[in-house]
UniProtKB/TrEMBL annotation:
It comes from the Bacteria. The chain crosses the membrane at residues 6-30, 146-167. Keywords: ATP-binding, Cell membrane, Kinase, Membrane, Nucleotide-binding, Phosphoprotein, Transferase, Transmembrane, Transmembrane helix, Two-component regulatory system. Its EC number is 2.7.13.3. It is found in: Cell membrane. PANTHER family: HISTIDINE KINASE 1, TWO-COMPONENT HISTIDINE KINASE. This is histidine kinase. It catalyses: ATP + protein L-histidine = ADP + protein N-phospho-L-histidine. It comes from Treponema saccharophilum DSM 2985. Pfam families: HATPase_c (PF02518), HisKA (PF00512). Signal peptide: none annotated. Residues 227-447 form the Histidine kinase domain. One of its GO terms (molecular function) is ATP binding. GO terms for cellular component: plasma membrane.
Length: 447
């Protein structure tokens, strides 16, 4: 389950960090204090042993039994036999020759040792010292182990955890509120003017960018509508003019025929225009997904060449195709439109007797992580495109030479369709051109 509440997230992290710090501090504190007290006890045991040494060396060891002390005092001969103990009968005790504190006291003069009881609840501290007469005096006392200490503090520990929870909960809800308030105050229209956290600047920047893009799209749409109306108005005006004259009557047979064919041409123009607009708007609606299939670019180019062969013949332009089959995964009618428009332009903006060369290349990926590429080039020996116009010609309705394009029946939507079709297939377009010599349009699939 994913936790969505900010308050809860802050609570968990505050509580976790708080508890962790608390336990670390408690551990350091307890272990330090425990070590300090242990040291203190050893000092006391040593002081007591120093004080009692006289009794033993002067041969009054049994007098120790009468001394009031909480500690256990054991006297051991150098061979390990116990000859006195103030708490139990010395004779009942086994030989202490192998006890670590005895061995160390014998060799080093004194020893400090600790041993835990089998239940780990108690710890015994031993101080042993070799006396001047060679015997060893061992003094020991019991101390509660850390485990018992901690268990004894368990109530306090639980209380602390509850307090930590309450503090974490309160600070979490306070913090969450504090963090969220400025977020809710962001002005989405002018997000960059709002005073927000530095960490949120990329977010507000993105909104600002999106707002800007939205505004630009809106402007483009308005411009498009204006362009469409204008483009439709021109042929409609002439159709209406011709029809008006015909309606008045009195035109001779030839003029009537001429006017009728003008009306026909103009209405054909309008049909082409409307068709182009429909194609573009289909490509624009990215939400509708057109069906993709395995296509051969070569086949599609051949189809378009076939359709365009009449206009090529009319201009005495020769068309050639070379290269590979160019297998891509694409939407057939869209790819066809792209090829058609590129070849159409290559013929239309060519010189009489010029040529159009179409080439398709397959490039196999060198690595698995790379994509296979298919590159389509349409090269013409036509009029070329000035540097300054190379970007703009892909805009809707943009024509370099309006009157020339119009006379050729152009609407200026062709390259815009090409651009959208390429974008739809994640392909990129590169344009190279030399004025008076010709142009090369390169479309790279699979990038
Ligand atoms: N191969 C080319 N050589 C020279 N100029 C070109 C070439 N292709 C396009 N252009 C220029 O770019 C302009 C825009 O081309 P586009 O294909 O978008 O429109 P069009 O050909 O005028 O009309 P449509 O394609 O809608 O019939 C053209 O008017 C022409 O000036
Ligand atoms: Mg065109």
């Amino acid at each position: 389950m994913k936790i969505k509440s900010l308050t809860f997230r802050i609570f968990i992290s505050t509580f976790f960090v708080g508890t962790l710090v608390y336990f670390i501090c408690a551990f350091l504190f307890i272990s330090n204090m425990y070590g300090y007290f242990e040291n203190q006890i050893f000092n006391e045991l040593k002081a007591e042993s120093d004080f009692l040494e006289n009794y033993v060396t002067s041969g009054h060891a049994e007098a120790i039994g009468k001394i009031k002390t909480e500690n256990r005092i054991t006297l051991i001969h150098p061979d390990g036999t116990v000859f006195f103990d103030n708490t139990v009968d010395a004779l009942a005790l086994e030989n202490h020759g192998r006890r670590s504190e005895f061995i160390e006291a014998m060799s080093r003069g004194s020893a400090k040792k600790t041993r835990y009881s089998s239940t780990m609840t108690e710890k015994t501290l031993y101080f042993a010292a070799r006396l001047s007469n060679g015997d060893v005096m061992r003094i020991s006392c019991n101390q509660r182990s850390v485990l018992v200490l901690v268990l004894g503090m368990s109530q306090t520990l639980i209380l602390m955890l509850i307090i930590a929870m309450i503090i974490s909960g309160a600070s979490a809800s306070y913090l969450a509120k504090k963090i969220i308030t400025p977020l809710n105050e962001i002005d989405l229209e002018n997000p960059e003017k709002s005073d927000v956290y530095d960490e949120l600047k990329p977010f507000t920047k993105r909104i600002a960018e999106e707002n800007f893009e939205k505004q630009q799209r809106e402007e483009l749409r308005q411009q498009f509508t204006a362009n469409v109306s204008h483009e439709l108005k021109t042929p409609l005006t002439s159709i209406s003019g011709f029809a008006e004259i015909l309606k008045a009557g009195g035109t001779d047979a030839q003029t009537t025929k001429d006017f009728a064919s003008s009306i026909f041409e103009e209405s054909q123009r309008m049909i082409t225009l409307v068709n182009d607009i429909i194609k573009l708007s289909k490509l624009d609606e990215k939400s509708i997904s057109l069906e993709r299939e395995a296509l051969s670019l070569r086949e599609i180019c051949l189809e378009a060449m076939e359709v365009l062969s009449a206009s090529a013949l009319e201009k005495n332009v020769t068309m050639k195709i070379s290269g590979d089959s160019g297998l891509i995964n694409g939407v057939r009618p869209v790819i066809y439109e792209m090829a058609y428009n590129l070849i159409d332009n290559a013929i239309k903006y060519n010189k009489t007797g010029g040529s159009v060369e179409i080439n398709i290349q397959n490039f196999m990926a060198a690595k698995d992580s790379d994509k296979n590429r298919v590159i389509l080039t349409v090269r013409d020996s036509g009029i070329g495109i000035p540097e300054s116009e190379r970007e703009r010609i892909f805009e809707r309705f943009y024509r370099i030479d309006k009157s020339r394009s119009r006379s050729l029946g152009g609407t200026g939507l062709g390259l815009s369709i090409v651009k959208h079709a390429a974008k739809y297939h994640d392909a990129s377009i590169i344009l190279k051109s030399e004025e008076g010599k010709g142009s090369v349009f390169t479309v790279i699939f699979g990038m």
